[in-house]
Amino acid sequence: MDVITCKDLKYSYPVFNKEPGFLNGLKDFFHREISYVKAIDGVNCQIGQGELIGLLGENGAGKTTLMKLLSGILTPQGGEVSVLGYAPQRREHAFLQDIGVMFGQKTQLIWDLPAIDTFNSLKVIYGIEEAAFKKDLDFLLEKLNLKDKLFVPVRKLSLGQIVKFNLIATVIHRPKLLMLDEPTIGVDILSQSNIHDFLLSYNQIYGSTILLSSHNTKDIRAVAKRILFLDKGQVLYDGPLSQFRFSDNPQHSYVLRTKTDSLPAGFDGSRMRCEKIDIASYRISVQTSGDLSCLDFSDITSIQEEESDLDETLKAFYRAQNKARGQDS
């Protein structure tokens, strides 16, 4: 059973156009000019139980809007969407019990009260049994290194500690689907690593599906196994993270270990770039499809392909899309 199914999903935001000046303001009072921006423009995807999905794309690509449609905050204006067998826009009680949503710039915590008060409120709201609540809370506090901060007023916590407490509030009821938008914003490197480890453990223990959107590619590399790359509300890539490359510039990197301290016979310098690593090992970046058949393999003891650099791949995607839009305009 698919946890998420989207068929030609669409959503547009109304934008009010206003020119400066008093007279224009008076004109707008009687007649406002409205245009529509396509935030989600025909998204099709299927996501199964237990998958770890990364959402990638530039600002305005539609990532947050897609999460709001999947969580029922927004109502689709076209197409179909099903989440855990529910129409999310109906916001049925059983559906809301099964999802957890966290937006990095929002908080569920009460500023002047300690986090434990929020968790006790959520225990009542979600009808969590006392024994299960204590067990899960202890596990979450341990994983995120927050045990000594549970009774500290939120206003006295660091930004990273607030983010981690919000993450606990999002998962305290064991949701089947976890949607996180920028979950490590403002968090230090060590805490980011703690959050990554926690999400992987949570997925393994409870089998929850995790949908993660972040501009921090470390989050995506550490957690996601599959990615959806969005641009202007459309899915440009849907597949394994390990295969995410920019097809118009298919650069592959290999580490070759050779028997001697020289390049292997057949090395084509016109289409290969070599960077010496040590006395008997060379790194070769291939600017073609990655075909190494021209090399004499008797000179090579091992070949290992390195994973493509996610940041560089994203930059290539962004540049290509911006160039295409410039040509169209």
Write up what this structure looks like.
There is one protein chain. The chain has 329 residues and is of the alpha/beta class. Helix content is 32%, strand content 30%. The protein contains nine helices and 13 strands. The protein has helices spanning 22-30, 63-71, 93-97, 115-126, 130-143, 159-171, 189-206, 217-223, 310-328, and strands at 2-17, 33-48, 52-56, 78-83, 99-103, 177-181, 209-213, 226-231, 234-240, 252-258, 272-278, 281-286, 300-306. A six-stranded mixed beta sheet has the order 5-6-7-3-8-9, sandwiched between helices. Strand 6 (177-181), helix 7 and strand 7 form a beta-alpha-beta unit. The mean pLDDT is 86.
Which tags fit this structure?
329 residues, alpha/beta, six-stranded mixed beta sheet, 9 helices
Mean pLDDT over the full residue set: 86
User: What is the helix fraction of residues, given as a range?
Assistant: 25-40%
Most strands sheet: 6 strands, mixed
Poorly predicted regions: none
| Alpha-beta content class | alpha/beta
In short:
With 329 residues, the protein is of the alpha/beta class.
Which SSEs are present, and which pair or pack?
Layout: E1 2-17, H1 22-30, E2 33-48, E3 52-56, H2 63-71, E4 78-83, H3 93-97, E5 99-103, H4 115-126, H5 130-143, H6 159-171, E6 177-181, H7 189-206, E7 209-213, H8 217-223, E8 226-231, E9 234-240, E10 252-258, E11 272-278, E12 281-286, E13 300-306, H9 310-328
Parallel strand pairs: 3-7, 3-8, 5-6, 6-7
Antiparallel strand pairs: 1-2, 1-4, 8-9, 10-12, 10-13, 11-12
